[in-house]
Amino acid sequence: MNANQLKGKWTQFKGELKQKWGKFSDDDLKQIEGNYDKFVGKVQERYGDKKSELMKWADAWHQKSTPEAIGKKPR
Hints:
By secondary structure, the protein is mainly α. The chain has 4 helices and no strands. The longest helix has 18 residues, at about 5-20.
């Protein structure tokens, strides 16, 4: 997931993020507000040892939440 993708899906993403990865506080989510660099920083701060696992989850979340990407064939 990149910066534009996070910003566009932030409202949906933050609810599932908090549910799955409970160390994020409401203040963390307000500080991030869809900013990719702040998101990565908070991931490192809260889940340093599991950063790669959380980022893989974020990528998978984005792929499943983007229906237009499913079923499209490259031209």
